[in-house]
Design brief:
The structure is a homodimer. Chain A is of the alpha/beta class. Chain A folds into 5 domains: 58 residues, Alpha-Beta Complex (Molybdopterin biosynthesis moea protein, domain 2); 73 residues, Beta Complex (Molybdopterin biosynthesis moeA protein, domain 3), CATH 2.170.190.11; 117 residues, Molybdenum Cofactor Biosythetic Enzyme, Chain A; 80 residues, Beta-clip; 206 residues, D-Maltodextrin-Binding Protein, domain 2 (3-Layer(aba) Sandwich). Helices cover 25% and strands 28% of the residues of chain A. Chain A has 16 helices and 36 strands. In chain A, strands 27, 28, 29, 30, 31, 32, 33, 34, 35 and 36 form a 10-stranded mixed β-sheet that branches. In chain A, strand 27, helix 9 and strand 28 form a beta-alpha-beta unit. In chain A, helix 3 runs parallel beside helix 6 and helix 4 crosses helix 5. The longest helix of chain A is centred in the middle third of the chain and has 20 residues. The radius of gyration of chain A is 34 Å and the shape is extended. The two termini of chain A are 59 Å apart. The relative contact order of chain A is 0.08. The interface between A and B is large, with 123 and 120 residues.
């Protein structure tokens, strides 16, 4: 693979970028009510006071205080309605020529005669002009992002329009012959290209960063790119080219920018994000955004968003929280790494579970709770290290999340859908590390919830022996979720006529395996032993996938010919299924979470008729004992 | 004042409301890229896998692994380009009929001949179908608010449109003869009515809560209200009537709802917010929102927003932080009070400074950092009490705020504008409690910054004696901001011919005073003593305002005739000015903040040419010694 001649650190890159950005944009005038989230380009001063008049602070009668002097208990004064006493409600403007209010309780009213027995004093029971806002007061300074309350306050001061910073205009240019825009080209053959989703993610992120983004047509030639950037530079404040800044044969962003402008740098020592390019064309900043989707959004967040902030003269605050790494996270010295993580809230702290690290694993961005930065000079993070996490979600959301580690099953999706349907402020996330890994996460105190299906050496018993062996000291319950069918998945019609485990070793059969430590792998190895088959005889034994569905899709797509998986996946992908075993899919719940609302909501879900019904409908499940506690260490359980 | 027959607690009110709200709205179909912030009405499942094909994970040559078996160091195999070896870049789809990739480094290329010296294995250097997203995977559950990352992920799975919850339609009905809509009635005489800003605040809050709000025409009669609510109930999901739910003579919301629907409750034991009304008309929930602007937004936040959440099936998370009350905050038993506060970040904690409590003091909503709730059963909060604050701003924003307590001066607005102009992530807030109160806040450790202008008993020296007296034990610096002119403010042309202090005691002169503890009040009392004048001889001596501008506007509006204030205010309001004294307006900075970035930014601001220039332009300031340290206790000062 070609390397960049020179890469620079992310800090240095940011410095070089900011050096070239002119702060502040032109302004535009807008009606105040359209200014939510916009930024003041100059201070806003009150036009009129609020209240603009002397107002009554009570229900009663407005009078001129001077005319009430002398009123006395023994010598009452009689005023006449609408002549020298005027009925007012709280908040009413005081009638011309009055300067005090007598409370209705202090007046004896009889027809139009109002009798008072003590004098009023100047400004009695009134609200002064400008009590809230005073004419000429500075309501908002420059560079202030406008809230709903600000909108009310500005209007209360008699202002209908203000000037705010114009939104930065961002041009997003997708490049690449293989790309398809499925919104513009609705008849596209999805088998003939790759869907461009980066442009839409970048557009949404730009809009969230206060910009007005536009996506150009997909550019496929060097000349078109040059033309689009050149004409864009006269109209837009910022240009994002995606991708073409890597080192492949069709990556011509660098040479184009060199021709029509100036390349400031190309290549940074940050991963994902290495191929980032930054240049200037006709005074307009141009980014060559890497093509891998995760690299694209991480470079946007780290380098493009600060440019938007500089244009608008604001700061988007990010929140951080300390967390503890649940596993060792290796990293190479000399390169800064950004790791997507899920955070498990357990034992009063957050445990960081790294998500898939590939720059193409984009769904992990949507799933991540936060980002951890491993600086250039560090050789990764050890297990149990305390680090700061940049949060992508609210802490309340993270704390309300039922996070299950361990074995994968489609029932977890069903449970998530039920939990979110009934409790919109909760969520259920599952990390598919395999059964044994889930058990180890329970043992180390990281996980409060884990799913497992581990066959004992006896070839009969599930889960209880392994829990007793590894988790003897952990207060926990083992709760039955469902029995499920495991078997061999093969293409519809079983073209290779696979009848059992022995056939998987036949030449020409491409098998795809599950990861080490998964219950399915343990079952498969057990079955191989039982039939005295060599692992090496099986083509594809070393290719590991981490979920049932990953195995299913490879068979459906004829990339592999066989794998081990659950019946519900065979049915979902219209595969044929050769049954091998019925196993217990169970849930471990620790004492740490057993009195937590997350536990009671999860149990309500598992025990619900809806859960059992939806599992039975998917096929391959037996829910007759769902919810049964199979083993427990006598925990205090307030919920059940 | 009329009382409600029955008031209920806010918790009971919320319970009664939620009982009547049908959860979940109809759904609508939208293009995925338009779904940022929208809520899924059903789970989203992947349409295609990502990647949808077997892809190359390296730059090199795609081959059929079977055809490479036998290649060996001593017996190399020669493949032919585009016949049995196909050039691929990283990420390319593997050509039909290939299943492995040989890295370019492992191939000897000579024209169309590609020589390899070891065999490939099945799926070598490939990315599997569905490595990121697998067809039929649940991408998002129901009731999920969609992020930018979600948008990318959904599009990557081949989906162009999804169904989301329709935005709740909210009808906002302003009522009241006195109201003016300054957007619709641009020629309105602002002296003849009150500006309706509540409707626009409620509209913005509704939009922020995920709704589609509409403001009706201003309603002035009972019949029109009845008609508008009745027809609105067939078209809208939620109706907010503002106001008319109080107990005044024109408050007919209750009787209208009783006629055409059902009143569920009227009156809650929460302040601000007491007159809240809730009812149902034709199945549609209707709120009678109180008219006082603070009551309107606080009842929206506490009662209407949860209804929006229930409609959309989401939760808007609020953040809280512990804080310490800087002052005693009294409250009546039997009523829940919501207190707006500013938070001062000092000594590693937040100190809560209560803002004006009146329900009409709306600008304090815009200024507040958070809300403190005093429950019904508590008789207020003591000074130094630890309470939870619901945050209205980001903590980073609060921590970056230079909060100055004490004496009011227009120079603080100038400083704020300069700070925000140069440092958009910082702010400067001033709380005008008066000089002595600022000094006490420094002594109690609440304030790190305070402004003061206190004349010593000697009638000559400013600030140093009072600082030595009250702050002997506090490490601090006293820094000179500016000299400024104090004098008597009178209307342009001086119609009452006021020449000096003695004239303020004349009959017919309406004086407006400054608050006890303010430097201006101390100066005034000193001058009264010097001229041997009785305080009680001065009409209006007991009416206190807490800023120079508040005094200025009352004189300009002919509500008062005279007051004591600074020259710059006289000039801003075109008043005449009778000079009395030149005084030192100074800044106290404590050791707690002296090594804080806020201190260095404030000092940069005060020392800047721009600050002096703008002060001199306002008139009445002398900046010849601005920035001079007048007194200090030998603090370690890293900044200067």
């Amino acid at each position: 693979m070609k390397r960049y001649l020179k890469t620079i650190s992310s800090d240095e890159a940011l410095r070089l970028i900011m050096e070239r950005i002119e702060p502040g944009l032109q302004e535009e005038s807008l009606p105040v009510h359209a200014c939510l989230g916009r930024v003041t380009s100059k201070p806003v001063y009150a036009n009129v006071s609020n209240p603009p008049f002397l107002c009554s602070a009570m229900d009663g009668f407005a009078v001129l205080y001077d005319e009430t002097l002398g009123a006395d208990l023994s010598d009452p004064l009689v005023l006449t309605r609408d002549s020298d006493a005027f009925g007012v409600n709280t908040g009413d403007i005081l009638p011309q020529g009055t300067d005090a209010v007598i409370m209705v309780e202090d007046a004896e009213v009889s027809g139009d005669s109002i009798t008072i027995r003590k004098p009023a004093y100047l400004w009695q029971n009134t609200r002064m002009v400008g009590e809230d806002v005073i004419e000429k007061d500075m309501l908002l300074p420059v560079n202030h992002m406008i809230t709903s309350f600000d909108i009310g306050m500005i209007i209360s001061a008699g202002i209908t329009g203000i000037t705010v910073r114009r939104r930065p205009k961002v041009l997003i240019i997708p490049t690449g012959k293989e790309l398809i825009d499925i919104f513009k080209d609705t008849q596209a053959n999805l088998a003939a290209g790759l869907i461009d989703f980066n442009s839409y993610t970048l557009r949404s992120l730009s809009a969230e960063s206060g910009c007005g983004p536009v996506i150009s047509n997909i550019i496929t030639t060097r000349d078109d790119l040059s033309e689009t950037v050149k004409s864009g530079s006269t109209e837009y404040d910022l240009i994002l080219i995606n991708a073409g800044s890597s080192a492949g044969t069709e990556d011509f962003t660098e040479s184009v920018i060199n021709d029509i402008g100036e390349v400031i740098f190309h290549g940074i020592s940050m991963m994902p994000g290495k191929p980032l390019l930054f240049g200037i064309v006709g005074g307009t900043p141009v980014f060559g955004i890497p093509g891998y989707p995760v690299s694209a959004v991480l470079t946007f967040m780290r380098f493009v968003r600060p440019v938007c902030e500089r244009f608008l003269r604001i700061k988007f605050f990010t929140r951080t929280a300390p967390c503890t790494t649940a596993y060792k996270i290796p990293s190479r010295i000399g390169i800064e790494e950004i790791i997507r993580v899920n955070l498990i809230s357990n034992r009063g702290r957050y445990f960081a579970i790294p998500l898939p690290r590939g720059a193409s694993a984009f769904s992990s961005m949507a799933r991540a709770d936060g980002l951890i930065r491993i600086p250039e000079h560090k050789e990764g993070l050890t297990e149990g290290e305390e680090v700061l996490c940049e949060l992508l979600r609210d802490e309340a959301e993270i704390k309300g999340c039922i996070h299950i580690i361990g074995s994968h099953d489609l029932s977890l999706d069903v449970a998530r859908d039920i939990v979110k349907g009934r409790h919109p402020d909760m969520d259920l996330i599952s990390t598919h590390t395999g059964s044994l890994s889930g058990i180890l996460a329970v043992r180390s105190g990281v996980a409060g919830f884990a799913t497992t299906h581990v066959l004992d050496d006896d070839g009969i018993t599930y889960n209880v022996p392994v829990v007793k062996k590894y988790l003897a000291d952990v207060p926990l319950k083992l709760i039955h979720i469902a029995k499920r069918q495991q078997g061999i998945l093969v293409r519809r019609g079983n073209p290779l006529s696979i009848r059992g485990i022995a056939d998987l070793a036949r030449s020409g059969v491409r098998f795809v395996n599950r990861q080490f430590g998964s219950g399915t792998r343990i079952l498969f190895d057990h079955l191989l032993d039982a039939e005295q088959l060599e692992k090496q005889a099986i083509t594809g034994y070393d290719r590991e996938e981490s979920s049932h569905t990953a195995v299913g899709i490879l068979i459906r797509e004829s990339i592999a010919d066989a794998g081990i998986g659950i019946y519900s996946v065979a049915r979902a992908f219209s595969l044929d299924f050769i049954p091998l075993a019925e196993e217990d899919y169970d849930l471990i719940v620790t004492g740490d979470v057993i009195n937590d609302v997350r536990y009671s909501i999860l149990m309500d879900t598992i025990m619900s008729g809806e859960f059992s019904r939806r599992l039975e409908n998917m096929g391959g499940y037996n829910t007759s004992a769902t919810g049964m506690v199979k083993y427990g260490t006598g925990l205090e359980d307030k919920n059940f």
